[in-house]
Amino acid sequence: MINIEEQTTTNTVIFLGAGISYVAGVPIQSEILKTICNNKEIFYSNNGNIFIKFLKDNFGLNENCDNLPTIEEIYFFLDFFISQNENLNSKYPVEKLKNIWNIFTQLICSVIETEVYVGNKADNAYNKFWQKLVELNHKISIITTNYDSCFFESFDNLYSQNYLLNYNIDFANYYDEYMRDINSFFWWDKAEEGVNNTKIIDVYKLHGSLEWLYCSNCNKVMHLPFFHANYNLENGELKQPLIFNEKGESIQRIATCPVDKCKYQILIVPPTYNKNFNNSILKDLYFKALRKLRMAKNIIFIGYSFPDADYHIKALFNRVNMSKKM
Ligand SMILES: [Zn+2]
Predict the structure, then answer these.
(1) What is the Å distance from ligand 1's center to 219 Cα?
(2) Distance (Å, rounded) from C-alpha 226 to C-alpha 174?
(3) From the CA of 133, how far away is ligand 1's center (Å)?
(4) What is the pLDDT of residues 203-249, one digit of tens each?
(5) pTM (2 d.p.)
(6) Where are the domains of the chain?
(7) Buried (b) or exposed (e) across 84-94, using 16+ Cβ within 10 A?
């Protein structure tokens, strides 16, 4: 059977990298560590303190924090001991290194949150860009390695024109048992292939998203648009969005899966050479994106420069016959 979509529409894939988020205020990687040092709330938090001490002990970080290593170097160092299951020394046994790995990832999330959500500086530009994209009248798909959601939050105008984003994940949002007590603000419509399927824009967030709360017990992701990672930097616990009790009072608890009460974590892949694609949801997205790239007539790169740590993205394009693309 011939796929109608492949027959009648021009498939165009837009590949978005860090550059598209930078204009909204998301710091580039080399700025993230500086921000951890400069943001007092983060720097003086319990977790910020543990992380900075680790850098002083192992990377010779000075008091002014002006000799910072790169993010990749820090992850590479941590990943080495964790993957070998070896202690660094008596002060840094492997369990502590795993904890520092998690803390580092939480701090990166927190930096992006505090820097961006002061206000999305690119909202106008994004709105115009979305409008231009749909005027192409192609079947548009977006693949991105960004885990912030600045660009996708500007989609609202198209939503009112009957366009829907399809993140290609079987979100927990589609199941009653997960959504019972969640504020209706966070409900998310399933993008069904309809009569006019050009109205659905497929999105593949290959490195996860700050809006995705993951339960490893259910292997399910709850998509919370406009929410974002909100970590308590004293104890590393993720806070959930407000919920309302029977009396209508708002409560903010630790983010736990409504079905099994396991603690949620944000599903992102940090900038490490040791990209962990054991997560079946992200692995599935990767191969769905590969199929999209193979079907695409045009591939447009915006703000992406194939950083060294993204060898899995290089592999993705090696699997696509790029000579036939425009
Ligand atoms: Zn669960």
Answers:
(1) 7
(2) 18
(3) 37
(4) 999 999 999 999 999 999 999 887 777 899 999 999 877 666 778 77
(5) 0.88
(6) 4-25+121-227+257-319, 29-116
(7) eeeebeeebeb
